[in-house]
Amino acid sequence: MFQKLFTIPIYLTVLATGGAGLVYQVTWQKYLSRLLGSDSMATAVILGTFLGGLSFGYYLCGKITARDINHFKAYALLEGAIGAWCLFFPIGFQMVEAITRYWSFSPPAMIIFQGMLCSILLMGIPTICMGGTIPFLTRGMSADISSETNIHAKVYAINTAGAFFGALLAGFYLIPEFGLPLTVMYTALVNLGACIFFYVIALNEKSKPYLKRTDSSPVNTGFDPSKTASLVGIGE
User: Domains of the chain (ranges plus CATH)?
Assistant: First the structure.
């Protein structure tokens, strides 16, 4: 197939988008701490929203992959949505900051409730899209149902490796060097580039019908949300 010619570029793109996901998380944590006035509270709220969005996106898009669709095109659209959202994130944050100017953010109850509300408004959509990328990419790269587990393991491992480097890059270089707005806007270009790359691949791929297993044994996807911590991007 056409996409076999791009196996290495695909995995490099997965590495880059995994890094982008953690750059966003570190940047969002800094942004939210400006609202809440507490770095530790912001970290807790960010992790809750981030992992919740990933889980919901993974569950939702995992079901959609069972349909007869072009999975690479769906993946490209998710990456485009992430990139577009994060490109204009500084503007969105200014709007939320203006709306919440007179909120108390008093611990413990109000800072949790109001902080989660702000976090969902700012990060809900992109984190859901990140969670949905792995199911679509796994299905798009799999020639048949028997190869999905192996493909999923590779995609997940490479994406997580990218997240590791993204967290370090954001904290030690990007944010100190460029500041919060430019960091998140420049990183958005990674997702927009991934959108274009996978859309080109999608133009040469046909919709792939979902292949059911012939036995009753479950498919081991290797995904355990409880172990993801914050090292998931995409994805991300």
Answer: 2-211+218-227 (1.20.1250.20)
